[in-house]
Write a structure and sequence with these properties.
The protein is an alpha/beta fold. The protein has 9 helices and 17 strands. Strands 1, 2, 8, 9, 10, 11 and 17 form a 7-stranded mixed sheet that branches. Strands 6-5-13-14-15-12-16 form a 7-stranded mixed sheet, with helices on both faces. It has a 3-stranded antiparallel sheet with strand order 3-7-4. Strand 10 and strand 11 form a beta hairpin.
């Protein structure tokens, strides 16, 4: 048993990654900042283990630690289409994990009501009155909620569409100026697609330093050598860089699935992050959705407290049925190879205002606007995709 910590809290955050720390950040700025909170994670968060990229209008809650931001993006697509996209009201932003941790954790530690525990979580269970988190450091209880970001679905139900976004990236440094710091690349499809959705993005840190990341949407992972070989080939053949040094490496796997998630498996447990279904099914984007959903969750908790009533968690910040259908159809099209993914994304950006496409991907567009944007792509593959989605629900 950890003798230095109380056993009982109002809230326990199980998992201190991006979602867990973001939730603590919003709680710490809310009417609930005086509630007792325990954050449990197996790691001490201090390494630069993630890079989060996202677009948004205006300022981020983390604006002061945004590492780089841009107003334009290169897109290299199907049949030699290339365009530098003016994203107008949006900025594309890059946030490094190291900066995120160094910014949030010291703030949270200043609040005497927030405690951290480095421990392995063994299981989470709850009754109608309290939730329990068993760790290798002892048992801890939450009177209100455990926010669980570690219990992730296997995403293996056959009736749903399950893909993976998997990636590997290198931060490289060169001896000569090789990058234009104001010109990142959002999508570069000029690599062999292998009948999948494969692209590289390039985020310059300076003229001599950049993150080069190889990303795939598919239903299977590659061996390590395949990721490395593609990165080497891209750097040499596309970027025309022969001499460079790899200074950082990152990799990851993100589920892309329309499988419904159990958001609140018991009265005192709420799942967040990937465990809560925060990842956008058709693209794997999660950072901005996570921030939106968590801010709404904290608002709901504040309202419940101000009215002195229990929170009736209905998941009212989930994606709409219409948007979920669009995700399912696109997943079906990609999984069943009904149309090359590079061609889909090329037509979206080629025939629409880039900012509208970003808004569409963020689920901020109306149904009429969605239909207008979808008219950019051939209808037949998506009709087949819709038929496939309907049939998958019936059988």
């Amino acid at each position: 048993m950890n003798q230095n910590l109380p056993n009982t809290y109002q809230y326990i955050i199980a998992g201190g990654g991006m979602a867990g720390l973001s939730l603590a950040f919003y709680l710490n700025k809310s009417l609930l900042k005086n509630e007792s909170i325990l954050i449990i994670d197996r790691d001490v968060k201090q390494a630069n283990d993630h890079t989060w990229c996202f677009w948004e209008q205006g300022n981020s809650p983390f604006e002061e630690i945004i590492y780089r931001k841009w107003k334009g993006l290169w897109f290299y697509g199907h049949q030699d289409f290339a365009s530098f996209l003016n994203i107008e009201e949006y900025s594309y932003k890059m946030l490094r994990g190291e900066d995120f941790y160094q910014y949030l954790i010291p703030q949270l530690k200043k609040n005497p009501n927030i405690n951290f525990l480095q421990a392995e979580i063994e299981y989470i269970e709850s009754t109608a009155d309290e939730a329990t988190v068993m760790t290798n450091q002892g048992i801890f209880k939450a009177k209100a909620f455990v926010f669980d970001s570690i219990t992730v679905s296997k995403f293996n139900q056959a009736k749903y569409h399950n893909m993976l976004q998997h990636f590997k990236g290198w931060v490289i440094e060169t001896s000569q100026a090789s990058f234009k710091p104001e010109e990142p690349t959002l999508f570069d499809f000029r690599i062999k697609q292998q009948n999948e959705c494969r692209f590289v993005y390039v985020l310059p840190h300076s003229e001599k330093k950049a993150l080069i990341e190889f990303t795939i949407f598919s239903d299977n992972l590659l061996d390590e050598a395949s990721y490395n070989d593609t990165l080497k080939q891209y750097i040499q053949e596309i970027l025309k860089i022969e001499n460079y040094q790899i200074t950082e490496i990152e990799s990851g796997v993100i589920p892309m699935s329309d499988e419904p998630q159990v958001i609140s498996p018991s009265p005192k447990v709420i799942r967040i992050g990937t465990a809560g279904g925060y990842v956008k099914a058709s693209t794997g984007y999660s950072f901005q959705r996570t921030q939106r959903f968590l801010q709404q969750l904290v608002k709901d908790l504040e309202v419940a407290k101000s009215k002195n009533i229990p929170l009736t968690f209905k998941g009212n910040f989930r994606t709409s049925t219409w948007k979920a259908l669009l995700d399912s159809v696109l997943l079906n099209v990609m999984l069943h190879k009904r149309m090359p993914a590079d061609e889909i994304f090329t037509k979206l950006f080629q025939y629409n205002r880039p900012a509208d496409v970003l808004k569409f991907l963020d689920e901020d567009t109306s149904v009429l606007k969605d239909i207008s944007i979808m008219q950019s792509v051939p209808s037949f593959p998506f009709i087949l995709g819709l038929k496939g989605v309907i049939l998958s629900k019936l059988y």
